[in-house]
Amino acid sequence: MDAVSIRAAYRRYAGFYDRVFGTLLASGRHAAVAWLNRRGGLRILEVGVGTGLSLSDYRTDNRVVGIDLSTDMLKVAQERVAREHLTHVEGLLEMDAGKLAFADGSFDVVVAMYVMTVVPDPQGTMAELERVCKPGGDIVIVNHFAAPRPGLRRTVENWLAPLSKKLGWRPDFTLDSLLRGSPLSVESVETVPPFGLFSLLHCRRQGA
Q1: Which GO terms are recorded in the biological process aspect for this UniProt protein (predicted)?
Q2: For residue 144, pLDDT beyond 90
C-alpha cells in the first residue's frame, strides 16, 4: 500500500461509500463513538475521518478534528458538516496519518476507525497517534485483524492479500504486527459485528 494507491481507491469509493460501507461498518463505528461519548470536554482527533459518517454522533461538548488523505472523501465530509450544522467539528484537514502536523500531546483521545490496514506504515502511524495523544490519554482503534490461527478465514485473507492495492486495505494484517514495538498499554480488545470480523482496540499512552 502507498499514498497513490490509497487515494486512487478512495476516489473510486467516495461517491458510494456511505451507501455500502456506511452500513457494513456501522457497528464498529457506533461502538467506538459510544465509548468516546462516555466523557465530555474532550478534544478528539479522528484519523481517517473519510466522509464524516461518525461526526454527527459525537457529544456536542467534545471538539473533534478529522483528518484524511483523500480529498474526495473529505469533500463529502465538509458538505455533511455544513448541511448538519455540526459546530462541534473543529476542523477537517487533508493530512497523512503517518506525518501528523500537530504538536505533541494535542489531543485527549485519538480514534482511528478502519484505518490501520490502509496506511502504508501502520507501526509508524501508531507512533504518530501516540505522539499527538496526551500522556495518559486514550487511543481507540477499530479494524479488521487477520485470524490469529490457520483456518478457512486465514486462508481467504491470505488469498486476498495480493489484491491490497485495488481493495485499498490489507486483508492479512495482524494485531501483533500493529503493536510490535509499541509502548502503548493495551487496555482491552473486543470483537464487533459483522460476523466478529472487526475489533475495537483500546490503548492508553503511558504518563500522567
Answers
A1: methylation
A2: no
Tell me: the pLDDT tens digits for 10-34? 666 656 666 666 677 788 899 999 9
Q: Which of 137, 103, 139, 96 is nearest to 120 (CA)?
A: 96
Residue ranges of domains in the chain, CATH in brackets: 3-204 (3.40.50.150)
**Cα separation, 66 vs 184, whole angstroms:** 22
Name the strands in the sheet holding 198-204, side by side, starting at the edge strand that comes first in the sequence: 89-94, 63-68, 43-47, 107-113, 133-144, 198-204, 185-192
CA distance 46 to 23: 19
- CA-nearest of 183, 38, 204, 48 to 133 is 204
